[in-house]
Amino acid sequence: MSDYEVILRLMLAVLVGGIIGYEREYKHMPAGFRTHILVCIGAAVTSIIQMFAVNETSIMIMQHPELAAAIKTDIGRLGAQVITGVGFLGAGTIIHEKGSVKGLTTAASIWAVACIGLAVGLGYYFLSITSTILVFMVLVSLKKFEKKFFQKRNIAIVKIEFAYKQGAVRNVAEYLKNNNIKVKHVEFILDEDKSEEELYLIREYTILMPKKLQVDEVVSELSLIEGIDRIEII
Questions:
Q1: What is the arithmetic mean of pLDDT over 164-190?
Q2: Would you say residue 117 has pLDDT above 80?
Q3: Which of 50, 129, 176, 184 is geometrically suited to a Cys-Cys bond with 99, CB 3.0 to 4.6 A?
Q4: pTM above 0.90?
Q5: What are the chain's domains?
Q6: CA–CA dist 199, 126 (Å, integer)
Q7: What is the pLDDT of residues 131-140, one digit of tens each?
């Protein structure tokens, strides 16, 4: 492999990683422009190293046929390590926050970029460019499609301050159940200045609502329940 070919493959890795990383950066995701470029370059470098190793092994065997049985090169070994190892980087982009998980798409894009980088390093140009276009289209174009056809529920965090607990908490639970609203998480806000009876009067509900319901409508109806002092959307 010539020096020109190495430069071409590395520059292509920068290009395809930058295209996908730009979309993630534009959406303000945990891993963005530079992260995707670095992952793609690293994967390309790994596969180029593997190509060099295979070529050197082939030359050595041609020069010394007696070593053919002793020298073996697995062309897929380093690539497999990259695909496995990049999972740790992807895990770092996944955020668990108050009942919801964010960053899975970015983690998947990092993994895809690593695979594309391997293809670039191995010299599969058509495969690299085609897969880059497809990944970019999935990230950009299918977002609206996903929201329209697959996102059946809306998630919201509602903070409720109760005037008193007795009956009010039960009424809130009954309202949510009757309207097919699932409670994913409840967080109690403690105020040290309040008495023991008043400690659990402020709660944050993370709720999943059917698509037909709007959070403003839910808050409006909850505010009518007797015993609720204040309610707001977080």
A1: 82
A2: yes
A3: 184
A4: no
A5: 3-149 (no CATH), 153-233 (3.30.70.260)
A6: 64
A7: 888 888 777 7
